Automatic annotation (TrEMBL), chains A, B:
rRNA-binding in keyword set: no
GO biological process per UniProt: amino acid metabolic process
Keyword Chloroplast: no
PROSITE patterns according to UniProt: AA_TRANSFER_CLASS_1
Protein name per the record: Aminotransferase class I/classII large domain-containing protein
InterPro entries the UniProt entry points to: Aminotransferase_I/II_large, Ethylene_sulfur-biosynth, NHTrfase_class1_PyrdxlP-BS, PyrdxlP-dep_Trfase, PyrdxlP-dep_Trfase_major, PyrdxlP-dep_Trfase_small
Organism of this sequence: Apiotrichum porosum
Pfam families attached to this UniProt entry: Aminotran_1_2
Similarity comment text for this entry: Belongs to the class-I pyridoxal-phosphate-dependent aminotransferase family.
GO molecular function: pyridoxal phosphate binding; transaminase activity
Amino acid sequence: MSLASSLTTHVNSLAISDVPLKPRTPAPKPNPVSVGAWSDAVDAYAGPRLSKRIIDVPDSHVTAEKLDAIFRTTYDGESNPGGLINLGIAENSLLTQEYLEYYSRVLKDALTPGDLTYGNQSSGSSRLHTAIADLWNENFSPLTPVKPDDIVTGPGATSVLDQLVAVFLDPGDAILIAAPHYNGFNVNMVARSRSTIVSVPVPNEEAFSPTSLDYFETAIKEYAAKGVTTRAVMLCSPQNPYGRTYDKETLLAYALFAEKHDLHLISDELYALSVYDNPNMPDAPPFISMLALDIEKETGKPFDSRRLHVVYSFSKDFGVNGFRVAAVISQHNPLVLRALLHTAFLMKVSSPADALLSYLLNDKPTFRKMVALNQARLADSAAHVRDWFEKRGFKPFQSNAGHFMMVDGRDVFHFKNFEEERAFAHKCIDAGVVVGVGQSYHYAQPGWLRVTFSVHRPVLDLALQRLDEALKSLKN
Amino acid sequence: MSLASSLTTHVNSLAISDVPLKPRTPAPKPNPVSVGAWSDAVDAYAGPRLSKRIIDVPDSHVTAEKLDAIFRTTYDGESNPGGLINLGIAENSLLTQEYLEYYSRVLKDALTPGDLTYGNQSSGSSRLHTAIADLWNENFSPLTPVKPDDIVTGPGATSVLDQLVAVFLDPGDAILIAAPHYNGFNVNMVARSRSTIVSVPVPNEEAFSPTSLDYFETAIKEYAAKGVTTRAVMLCSPQNPYGRTYDKETLLAYALFAEKHDLHLISDELYALSVYDNPNMPDAPPFISMLALDIEKETGKPFDSRRLHVVYSFSKDFGVNGFRVAAVISQHNPLVLRALLHTAFLMKVSSPADALLSYLLNDKPTFRKMVALNQARLADSAAHVRDWFEKRGFKPFQSNAGHFMMVDGRDVFHFKNFEEERAFAHKCIDAGVVVGVGQSYHYAQPGWLRVTFSVHRPVLDLALQRLDEALKSLKN
């Protein structure tokens, strides 16, 4: 494939002049079925009865509807240039042109007659599971080599987590997650499985320290006192929304916490290959998979490895959110794999995506080039966005992984409450850009933003111009 | 595209000499995690606790595990020539070469930058929903034109039905289906939603008559007496496993039955475009979508159209089971669409499949040619298989739609019970071929087979040779 000669050269097929500098300022366009409150729609409904479980919808439905409304107004250079540019979502358009060219070219070699059938497993193809095992073994040094049958795949981490938590939690049971955290968990682990997400606020300065688990100790007791049983703890490594890798000591603290309370430990490692250089973090730890740790040896304490399950997705590291391919890797718990097998066919990976990603993983030179190119562009784009915010008085929380960074805007905004933060989010939408405000990630104080920077540069710069408009309107 | 010049000319890229006539006779190769009984595995498990809902698995898990074992040993001309040829599953390999060539060629035009993102809706793309609406409006004469927002898509009818029944049924509630019926319903509508599938045995001679609903009247009362509430009725039109279209009178009888008992009516129309000529059925009704019927006008009785929901999938009519693209079309019930929207992101269609199928639907000349080619090959292949069974004393149940036919082997087998029928199924597996035996479809008497004929001819003939071996071994 014809990769750009320099790793840091950006694709400029879409020139800055092609994008409207004075955008229309569209309001999110909701699906016509989701106008007004759900409870009002239910009260007005006189048709044949719907199930109680659907009528008693969890609060997460509001997030699901909002997400759909934003998708429906999303900026597209060709079809919707006046749409909202979404810096509040983890999409990576730094490699779009390269991947479109690559996938279009290789499909004829990648797609087999078997891909038009149900394939050779209820879960994704054995070809894909083998390629994922190789990916893990060749890049993340697992303590025990990953085997293809350690893996169950599904259409995105969203689906995989939905099924996985149902294996551990009965409705109402709790899973603990350090806050701030990815807001999608409140949909994907609640909407069907009806789990209780316990967001555990951890101060910034302890978020990447073993002491973060002290807050979990408090939370688990607090929920137990309310009669809620905690069954699992989730680790996002690298962390979302901070965009940072964990050191070994903190990872081990998670493992010991899970062991102490007999919990399942889900390690969400979606950004494993999206680690990049930040000159302000010369001593940043590399990414370490939980599967790479010899926990008993490192800690001198027992650890039941049946409780450890890794979730991985191609969406982030390979910029293919739309492909919907993710995996659970559980190396020591065949009963969990068997439970997932019972419903694997309900979340079967689509074969063209299965074929294309397997092909890429097996095409090692291209795989390595694309990963390196992605990391270089992430570093470049992150530096660009850090600089932009610093010039405006924000304090970026230093990051070295993922598609986004948190920026501390407390000295700029002086928000007195979350209501004011929400008002700013609406001003951004009026200006044609979406940014994640801290409260969406269960942040304890107002004034923080999560900003996605893994955006094709001309579009990123347009988004930042729109954000400037929103900031100016705040001063007026 | 370079379609074969004659519609009935079969692709012979795989010559008969390429396939092993003396197959190895492999036993199904189970996933290593699913060896032995689930209850034994649970008893032996000493790891961190799994949820009660997962431990108390429905009986359907046995079917799910068996399906996976069969997939793992499936015949593949290149990678597994000694594998099982599966005539017990609805896969269509009559157009494999044409579709592989087509999709490989058009991906570069079909796939857009937006396909690498989450896209422009929580459900499948607006491009796909628009193409499905057009498909319906241009081919199936809906009473009210289908709009893109009447549609929710998901990764296969399996996933779509799982979510749809959860909207209508609380755990334990019943859905009625005429038996024999597709055995996958017992997995996809039970495994997660925990619905009760009520298989209503209807004699052959009434299966396509309005009197079939009399059996439903009995069943609904019987289950009500047991304290089970029925919330929905399912119609498979064209019918699976009979492979036959319904006349208008029977469709209307389903509608009136649903109205009378205030049930949701799910019309599974997966084989809508797979209707073919059978010279023995000169008066076979054409396929009629439930959406095409003016039920109130036709019957002179009220009908609440909020209860009507159609399920469609591309798997069958387009021979792409692996793509995982299906749709619910609900034209008059925004609350149902809204409920599905809350979990649509958990079953998002994969973008390469979304892009390829949208492209095909919009490429009208190719679409029409492929549908016609498929129907011609189905007719040819069905005639071939009817002839084969008739020569051996079986009585094929005349069919005009779908990928399979039921054949009455009672005069050949003289099975005294289902145990003997099951023993024959195992003999078939020993010979390297899978056929569906009647009991898998909840057939009331032993001695019937469901045989898939939509198989590339050289492989089909090899499968029939293997079946002959199984029949001979029965006589010995």
